[in-house]
Amino acid sequence: MEPKRIREGYLVKKGSVFNTWKPMWVVLLEDGIEFYKKKSDNSPKGMIPLKGSTLTSPCQDFGKRMFVFKITTTKQQDHFFQAAFLEERDGWVRDIKKAIKCIEGGQKFARKSTRRSIRLPETVDLGALYLSMKDTEKGIKELNLEKDKKIFNHCFTGNCVIDWLLSSKSVRNRQEGLMIASSLLNEGYLQPAGDLSKNAVDGTAENPFLDNPDAFYYFPDSGFFCEENSSDDDIILKEEFRGVIIKQGCLLKQGHRRKNWKVRKFILREDPAYLHYYDPAGGEDPLGAIHLRGCVVTSVESNPDAKKSEEENLFEIITADEVHYFLQAATPKERTEWIKAIQVASRTGK
């Protein structure tokens, strides 16, 4: 009997021999992780046994690479994976940890969570708390804040985070709020913006999180950017990057010239409505952008340039300038979600 497939999807993996990062189709089984060069491949490029393995997340060994986690096997071999966004990383980490625990206890993997936190009370779920903080109606309000002749877009202050934790009855006092906020920061649910909050994270302050109206923070997938900032970390962005991120993830994209298919990381923004695509293995600048205002997006059953084995979950975007883009999702559900999100953005964005 074959091991049960728990989760599968595109992740970027660091090579074991060469220090290159490449997108792989990754499959989590009950007893290990298989990774394939392409989703359509019949045999895996490699396999990582989970018995006795340990998982580290977040893994901050690679500087600006975000959403990385590490699996260390019993032979002390390190395997590094990078997700496209925070919730995706947390989903993989949660399932891998549970699979390892099930192996140790001789149990079958089941979806009901048994996650426990060592540092925090059992009632605190940082993932659920993060989603509540991002709620558009009841969550923390993202603002455009000015400091030292710089404008920080889509961010909020440290004392606002503690105020929200208190008002939502997530904590009993400000000291407890600092502990929770620091954990959110350490786990990557919050990011520092500006010198004051960054210095605190780097260890020049007593607490990594500051309950301070001059300390700025942002959600990692919020579309944060800083204007008139000359530092290496914050880049002046064009108008098309000002939109709020509403969806992101990896898809296959067909090239316009060679008609070959490559994995790309896509970020969908609305108002203005743009779909930017990146090399998932690295690089902060997008490879291209699709202006979605007035576009048409539909599912297609076949593509003249695609092999029969690849004619699954295709959809097409036709821009107002009549440029055609063919994309491929991993599942029918994922294709539907992308089509709906693009349709909404194309109607509401500039």
UniProtKB/TrEMBL annotation:
Lineage top rank: taxon: Eukaryota
GO cellular component: plasma membrane
Keywords, sorted A to Z: Acetylation, Phosphoprotein, Repeat
Pfam families per the UniProt record, alphabetical: DEP (PF00610), PH (PF00169)
Domain PH: 4-101, 244-347
Every DEP domain range: 136-221
GO biological process: actin cytoskeleton organization; intracellular signal transduction; platelet degranulation; positive regulation of actin filament depolymerization; positive regulation of cellular component biogenesis; thrombin-activated receptor signaling pathway
Keyword Phosphoprotein: yes
Role of this protein: Major protein kinase C substrate of platelets.
Annotated protein name in UniProt: Pleckstrin
